[in-house]
Write a structure and sequence with these properties.
Elements lengths: L1 H27 L12 H5 L3 E3 L1 E3 L2 E5 L3 E10 L4 E5 L13 E5 L2 E7 L15 H12 L13 H10 L12 E4 L4 E4 L8 E2 L5 E12 L13 E5 L5 E13 L2 E7 L16 E8 L4 E5 L4 E2 L5 E9 L2 E15 L3 E6 L10 E3 L2
Amino acid sequence: MRPRTRHVAIGLVLGALGGSLVTVGVALVRPGALDAARPTDADRDAPVTVPVVRQVLEDVEPVAGALAWARVDEPLAVDGVVTALPVEHGAPVVPGAAVIEVNDRPVIALDLPFGLWRDLDDGDSGADVRNVHAALAGLGLYSGAIDAPFGQATRAALASVDGRLDGPLAAAEVVAVEPTGSVLDAPGVRVGSRVTAEDLSVRRLTDRVVVDDGGLVAEYARAGDGIRLFDAGGEVTWAGRLAQVEAVPEGTLLTLDLSEPPDGSDALPDELASAAVVAGATRVEVLTLPRVALVAGADGTSSVTTAVVGPEGVVPGARTVVRTGLCTRDLCEVEVADDGALSEGDLVVVP
């Protein structure tokens, strides 16, 4: 058994040596293989260039900070015994629906910016009456003038919601809700419960986004800027404009403009993973260049140096004066001044 073992061991050593010799041989037959990738003096002396690109330019700033929908609790100004509870705790409350009945009197939900501060009767006018008319018109129940005084047409529209609302309208018989979504907050309330305004409310899911950022977004975002909302997968779930931007103790409060939603719907997504503010955008494709390629002039214009590709490689060419339009962090819209020439695909030297 010993001689056989010795032969096997020798064979393994020779095999290993043979493999090493083969490897060395391969290395020897390819001398200078690594030198081929080394830059030459001409490569090192060649200017750095960037291309002129034609595109729609957008100045988009990602919103930094945790996002959440702002919520407003609208108390139900009731005092009595619950005689009917058509909406359960935590269930959605929609405009035009009865939320609860207290002492056999209904409380209905209307799309209002705020609750009523007084009872309304024939001849009354003001912002609260206009809001009620607008809400009823949105339900298709009122066709009169929005700024008309409270009257027979108003009472008829309210009676269409609930026949018991055919007279003066008590402030406690209406609760303001949002078309973007509201839910009833009435834990432990059931038919037969004695309730006050402290026992139940409607939690309004508003069109406002709270950003936990210490007010950072309020430093650069402005009313009228575009905004995009994204889900966790990075897909755009809503796009529109900002109606208001304000710094609040919690961070920044962004109010969305729902007056003219781009997709024809004011429905806002439940999920709010991230957002981005669009501070500006070109309407059409424009010529763009990186900021680093622009040399600012004392007269407010800028200049660029085009690159020429010749037999000896890339060399600096003519200087072209340009005017800049929209600029982002990295790119600028450029327009050739005077009789200069600059086209898509041209190379520009980075100074």
